Amino acid sequence: xxxxxxxxxxxxxxMKLNRMKLIFENYAERVEKDKISFLEALDYLIEEEKNxxxxxSLEIRTKIxxxxxxxxxxxxxxxxxxxxxxxxxxxxxxxxxxxAKENVIFLGPPGVGKTHLAISxxxxxxxxxxxxxxxxxxxxxxxxxxxxxxxxxxQRLKQLCRHKVLIIDEIGYLPIDEQGANxxxxxxxxxxxxxxxxxxxxxxxxxxxxxxxxxxxxxLDRLLHHSTTINIRGESYRIKDKKSQISQAQIxxxx
Length: 255
Ligand code: ADP
Ligand code: MG
What we know:
- By secondary structure, the chain is an alpha/beta fold.
- The protein has two domains: about 1-65, no CATH class; about 75-240, P-loop containing nucleotide triphosphate hydrolases (Rossmann fold, 3-Layer(aba) Sandwich), CATH 3.40.50.
- Helices cover about 60% and strands about 10% of the residues.
- The protein has helices spanning about 1-15, 20-35, 40-65, 85-95, 95-100, 115-125, 135-150, 155-160, 180-190, 210, 215-225, 240-255; strands spanning about 105, 130-135, 165-170, 195-200, 225-230.
- A five-stranded parallel sheet has the order 2-3-4-1-5, with helices on both faces.
- α9 links the parallel β3 and β4.
- It is globular and about 75 Å long.
- The termini are far apart.
- The mean pLDDT is about 95.
- It binds adenosine-5'-diphosphate (ADP) and magnesium ion.
């Protein structure tokens, strides 16, 4: 009996059945005590291992994505941001846009939830077994510039095309020079009709020439050809609490 148990543990280790290994002893006692059938016991152990592996891989892939924070759609207050069309959000959540290699662009002033929504959509993609990678626009362009400097631009562009969904956050917050705009265009062209991009910007499309200069038209041409734009027109969520604090203080003062 001991020999069998030893071999069982060794095999669970070799096969990386970590969850099974962890719960085996306690569960074996329960099986004996409660007279659980062989079929039921086997099913329980395999189900436990499967769920553990799934959660683990979700966690690892979320880490790889490099989100600045992890927040889902469930944590987004759509009532606060009434300008967002829920139908479009639900349509995006079906992941049809990833299959169709389309882009998604969130536009709006600071604090309205663009980054939150881009990350939520990225998380949904990961949950649906698509790979996702997050980059801030400034870091992305700095990296592309450096790669070009070191004669490995193609390699970097290829790396950025490894993920089914690429999030490029905060377009337009910092100025981009001609060289940067050109590198950005190369990335957009490489992913065009092959892989999806989710972008966020505080600038409307008509202002994109202030960001990308003469390259703006070519960038927008490819980006918008197959895309969904979510225009958010509302108040910043960041100052929501501050505002209510201020008005409460005012009420206290008038009392
Ligand atoms: P933006 O990218 O548009 O500047 P963020 O997505 O960074 O805004 O949002 C700022 C903060 O406010 C984040 O912590 C985000 O989770 C939160 N937030 C914004 N809008 C909402 C909302 N409607 N419901 C819940 N949290 C929100
Ligand atoms: Mg943001």
